[in-house]
Amino acid sequence: MKTKKILALILAVSMVAVMFAACAEEGGKQEYTRPPDEGGNSVDDEFPSANYDNQDFTFLVIKHTDTMKDYYGGPYIDADSYTGQAISDAVHERNLAVEEKYRVKVQAREEVNGEPAALLQTLYQSGDFAYDVIYGWGYKLGKCITENYFTDFGSLNNVDLTKEYWSPSAMEDLTIAGKQYLCINDISMNKLDWAGFLFYNKQLLEDYNVENEIGASVYDLVRDGKWTLDTFLKMVQSVSNDLDGDGAITKNDVFGLIDGDGMGTFASSASGVFNTVKNDDDTYSISLYDEKVLNIAEKIRSVYNNNKFVKDYDEIWDGADASGYSDMWEYARSFFATNHALFTTGSAYITSEFREMESPYGILPYPKYDENQEQYYSEVSSLASIFAIPSTVRTDMSTASFDRTGMVLEYMAAKSNEILLPKYYEEVLHKQRLDSTDDREMMDIIRNSIRYEFTDMMGMESFADTKSKIYEKPNTAQSTYTRAQRKMEKELNEFYAGVLEMIAKNNAKDQ
């Protein structure tokens, strides 16, 4: 499982759709099909074995850069040996199980390139498509879909996308015209690493009698379905203290919330409002703005405009010396870790930053819009790395086929759910001092509520820009939306039409 690092700058080239045959000759190879899930079996009993002649099964890992902190990929694909580190060892153990069951060699080929479109075009045109699975930043892969670089996951034999380890709750968000070109499963922990939620400081909660004011434990509010936007904003406004007595609440005082973008746009998806809705005919309509969204934005802005309660990263960064921190984002969040904020927005990835925090802290899902909302929603960042399958089978391995890809991926995801996920929970919860049964329950709720924002994952920048402007200035929301509506519709319709055209061409080619 040696990782091959290929550090190369890929020159930008013109984007031309490259059409390849979606299937390869099977050459008489035996096909394997997963048996039905009879229940009560171990993961290994549920999957047949196969012999792929110890040939490589390769992930093309597209990294943004080799110099910055690898925020959005994670160490989940390959590990050369046991090192004593829990996550790495779990990855190594999982991959050994895959290698033994299918007689393959799990490999990771790393390409350092911020733009997968140019990279993939170069690799396809050169014939260097020696990989089975692609793993890279979600929205950057989303932008590549209409270039016909990827295969529909739903067309793979031996894959069951309804299984828990494939995150079925999020799959509908990534389905386009009945096709699934991007997927996430438990081979990577990115759906948890980058699912948004709240951290809260238990000491400040007690010091400022916050739970007494709201009349309930925050954990009980979540369990009872009463953890709402109004309650959250009330709690944010319950903490503000001018520690140095200078007459202003600065980052060195105590306040309610640190929010990365300072606009609270998370509240839309947390309230069950997404940028588009899928129609019965599989087309999309814009749902980014209506009276509910305006109501949410106005509530958020009435609190966020008061810097006695809310600080964004820009305010914390202003004039700051961030030496001693790995980056400016970690520096901003350090003010939560040092008891200056009751809440901060974040995700599981950043729990390690709070390992040395003196006060106890906990996690909560983002709040519902109101108690009538049936479930919580945790949106996964569109920057989080995700999986795609190349549209052509590699030619450098005689056993390579889409059947092999499906077989190995399915077992690898199931085995990862068995081996890696428990270790991940231990690392994120127990070792970061989130070891209460309450926090484990909150993490389970977050895991079961993840969603993807379709337009973000497909790289449609006009939607995110419009939503930010609505939340920044709700009083001009109608005119903001009106001005942007045509641009958003064009971007959405052109993408969808491009997908349909690609599907039609592939269908004609296969006939």
Q: What's the layout of helices and strands?
A:
Elements: E1 4-6, H1 43-46, E2 55-63, H2 86-102, E3 104-112, H3 116-126, E4 133-137, H4 138-142, E5 150-151, H5 168-171, E6 175-176, E7 179-180, H6 190-193, E8 197-201, H7 202-207, H8 210-214, H9 218-223, H10 229-236, E9 255-259, H11 266-270, E10 276-278, E11 284-286, H12 291-304, E12 310-312, H13 313-317, H14 328-337, E13 341-346, E14 361-364, E15 378-379, E16 385-390, H15 402-430, H16 437-447, E17 450-451, H17 454-457, H18 461-472, H19 477-510
Parallel strand pairs: 1-3, 2-3, 2-4, 9-12, 9-13, 15-17
Antiparallel strand pairs: 4-16, 5-16, 6-7, 8-13, 8-14, 10-11
Description:
The chain is an alpha/beta fold. The chain folds into two domains: 4-192 and 382-416, D-Maltodextrin-Binding Protein, domain 2 (3-Layer(aba) Sandwich), CATH 3.40.190; 196-379 and 436-484, Periplasmic binding protein-like II (D-Maltodextrin-Binding Protein, domain 2). The protein has helices at residues 43-46, 86-102, 116-126, 138-142, 168-171, 190-193, 202-207, 210-214, 218-223, 229-236, 266-270, 291-304, 313-317, 328-337, 402-430, 437-447, 454-457, 461-472, 477-510; strands at 4-6, 55-63, 104-112, 133-137, 150-151, 175-176, 179-180, 197-201, 255-259, 276-278, 284-286, 310-312, 341-346, 361-364, 378-379, 385-390, 450-451. The strands form five sheets. It has a six-stranded mixed sheet with strand order 1-3-2-4-16-5. Strands 12-9-13-8-14 form a five-stranded mixed sheet. 45% of the residues are buried. Mean pLDDT is 88; it is low at 1-41.
